[in-house]
Each structure stands twice: as C-alpha cells, then as structure tokens.
C-alpha cells in the first residue's frame, strides 16, 4: 500500500538551530513527494515538491528536502529555524489519480 | 484573489443527525478534493471531483458519506446518521485540474464535532 511515515511527532528547537524532519515513503512506481506546512490558525500550504530530476529540492522560506531513493527518504531541512517556523509539517505522496496521501505530521516548536 | 472557502467553520451536532459541509473552490478550478483530518493524524483522502462528476470516491468510509458538485463549482459533503467517530476537520482543496499534477490549494476546513 502507498504510504509515507513521519517518525518525529514533536520537535522542539531553539531559534537558529538546524532542522531535519524525517519522512520515509513506501510505494513503488513513479514517486512524487511533497512537504506541506500548517501554521497555527492557517490553511495547509505547499512548501516544496519532488517529481523528478535534481533530488535536492528547494522550497519557500529557506526549506529544502532531499530525495534519497536508496533510503526511501525525503527529509525536510532548514539550516537555521526562526520562531515563525513553528507549525505542523506534513510529508505527502501522490497517487496515480492525483490524490494526496499524508503522513501523521510533525509538530515543530521553535523557542525564541 | 479569493482562496478556497468552507462553511461552516465549526459544526456541532448530535449522534444520528444529518450534516452538510460546503466548499467553494477557487474560481476556474475544475478539480475539487475532500479530505478528513482526525486528531493527531494527517489528512485522509475522501473524494475527488473533476468537473461535476466524482472521478474517485474510493476514500469515502461508508455509504453514510456522499458528496455532490452539481454545477462543477461549489461542492457539498453530506454525512447521514452521524457517529462520534465522524468528528474531525473536513478539508477541501481545489486545483486547476487536468490529467497531470496541479498544486492543490486547501481551504481552512470545517471542524465537525459529533456529541
């Protein structure tokens, strides 16, 4: 079955710390992967996506993610977090019918 | 421009009642999706419309759930004989549609509480 898993449920960092959130996928065929973010009180919005080509994908707000096929991973990174990055982060995959399937999410709390 | 809107923002109902949740997609978007997000979980796909027709309803949990999009714009998710387990945030998303991937834009969701 198609799935993505996020093992970090809650991450707490101080401002300026580096961030890495884990995402592992479990499905074959064409792999399309996404990271979405939900800031407190706001809608889900797309941070970045990987379809093909360069496995290092850059997104908005200084985020990036690396697709590592041998590890079935698509981890999200940011070199220096800010208080405003406090949010819930979701890794997601895409079915052949263009529907998204999400991981359980990682809550990030950044302490000023 | 306006984003995806959903009404109501909150809905409290009693077990066994019928509810309707509405989604107004971004103007011109032909594809519309419904997802359900239970507490502590990521969103789960329910149903996808391309235009007026349900292109994929494989995520609907049972026949108490039904959705329509009669004119290819606004969609209504209908839940009959609600159960406490239906409590969740119901999210709607729209995209320009087409055969290839287009970014889905999400609405704020409707929080449904079944007492």
Describe the structure in your own words.
The complex is a heterodimer of chains A (112) and B (115). Chain A has 112 residues and is an all-beta fold. Chain A has strands spanning 3-5, 10-14, 19-21, 24-26, 33-38, 44-50, 56-58, 64-68, 73-78, 87-94, 100-102, 106-111. In chain A, strands 2, 5, 6, 10, 11 and 12 form a 6-stranded mixed beta sheet that branches. A 4-stranded antiparallel beta sheet of chain A has the order 3-9-8-7, with no helix packed on it. In chain A, a hairpin with a 5-residue loop joins strand 5 and strand 6 (44-50). Chain A is globular and about 40 Å long. The N and C termini of chain A lie far apart (40 Å). Chain B is mainly beta and 115 residues long. In chain B, strands 2, 4, 5, 6, 9, 10 and 11 form a 7-stranded mixed beta sheet that branches. In chain B, a hairpin with a 6-residue loop joins strand 4 (31-37) and strand 5. In chain B, 34% of the residues are buried. The interface between A and B is medium-sized, with 21 and 27 residues.
Series of H and E elements of chain A: EEEEEEEEEEEE
The biggest beta sheet of chain A reads: 6 strands, mixed
Question: What is the straight-line distance between the termini of chain A?
Answer: 40 Å
Q: Given the structure, what is the number of helices of chain A?
A: 0
Structural class of chain B: mainly beta
Shape of chain B: globular
Helical percentage of chain A: under 10%
């Amino acid at each position: 079955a198609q799935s993505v898993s996020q093992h970090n449920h809650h991450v707490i960092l101080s401002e300026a710390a580096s961030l890495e959130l884990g995402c592992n996928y479990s499905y074959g065929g064409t792999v399309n992967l996404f990271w979405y973010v939900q800031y407190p009180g706001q809608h889900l919005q797309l941070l970045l996506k990987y379809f093909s080509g360069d496995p290092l994908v850059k997104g908005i707000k200084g985020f990036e993610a690396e697709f590592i096929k041998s590890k079935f991973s698509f981890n999200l990174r940011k070199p220096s977090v800010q208080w405003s990055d406090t949010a819930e982060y979701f890794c997601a995959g895409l079915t052949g019918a263009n529907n998204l399937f999400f991981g359980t999410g990682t809550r990030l709390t950044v302490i000023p | 421009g306006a984003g995806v809107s959903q009404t109501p923002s909150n809905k409290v109902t009693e077990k066994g009642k019928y509810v309707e949740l509405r989604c107004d997609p971004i103007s011109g978007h032909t594809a519309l999706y419904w997802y359900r997000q239970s507490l502590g979980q990521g969103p789960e796909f329910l149903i996808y419309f391309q235009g007026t027709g349900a292109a994929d309803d494989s995520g609907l949990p049972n026949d108490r759930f039904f959705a329509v999009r009669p004119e290819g714009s606004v969609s209504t998710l209908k839940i009959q004989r609600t159960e406490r387990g239906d409590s969740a945030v119901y999210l709607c998303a729209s995209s320009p549609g087409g055969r290839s991937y287009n970014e889905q834009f999400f609405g704020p969701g409707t929080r449904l509480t079944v007492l």
